[in-house]
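User: When convenient, might I ask for sequence and structure tokens for a protein?

AI:
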Amino acid sequence: MTLRNFQNPVIDLNDKSILVTGGTGSFGKQFVNTVLDRYTPRKVIIFSRDELKQSEMMEALSTRDAPPVRFFIGDVRDVERLEMAMRDVDFVIHAAALKQVPAAEYNPFECIRTNVHGAENVVRAALRTGVEKVIALSTDKAANPINLYGASKLASDKIFVAANNLSGTQNTRFSVVRYGNVIGSRGSVVDLYRKLINEGASSLPITDPRMTRFWVTLQQGVDFVLSSLNLMRGGEIFVPKIPSLKMVDLARFMAPDIQQKIVGIRPGEKLHEVMVTADDARSTVSLSDRFIIEPSLTFWTHESYRSADASPVDDEFSYASDTNDEWIDDEMFADYLREFSS
């Protein structure tokens, strides 16, 4: 089994201006490098609040020949700063969020201010500046959430879908991309296991031997966002078809000779993740490489996707990591690690 390619359909970003909130994160850096490798954009704007990370990213990009990248210090909690950054911008990728489940549980006010109020501010700024398309990055934890991080991202998803009702005759459209754990993202469990292995740890921590997760690489995530940006009409939640993996198998793949230590589930964690719930099934269609949860918007018609080799899923369908048809084997995991190491 090989890694799925999400590069089609291709969107033309030549001579376009793109803004990425949270652009110094793992996704943002991969996204910017991919865009610069494949296109000649008019401008790529990195909007984030950490000047050190911006400085480091600027240094990393200095090897390129005068890349059209601009850096804005700003926080998604500041709608005026967002408006200033979005002037003359065609597309916005909203990747800024507080993502750590335990941190959100213990700092709920801060999580809401960034993930929910920040989403509202991105919508307001995009509408006021006439941005053409906005894609917000979500998470499998937003489906049937049991932790504050997931609940805040569900609220964010709802804000972006409903924002299409606010644009009126204006052409601004909003959609959401939802996917699972990212191999290669900063702070991922793969990152943790590698650190422990390199330090000579005698065991690797496992929260629960039954636990499963969806997995995607950083490059797959970027390609999926770019293809969804091309497909979107406004209001969809795009869900990639990606494989699952048991956490015990992840540890075994990475370190077959190291013991596993069961440490228990952390506050707010699930045994398994869901990306399309049974309640969403009635409005979900299946394409060859993704599911699309269609919105309940007055302007929405279903003919577009359903005439493009897409079909409705069964009413009782759900897309969960423990009942997934696709599972990572040794060969595929080696491909994942190769991409993670590159």
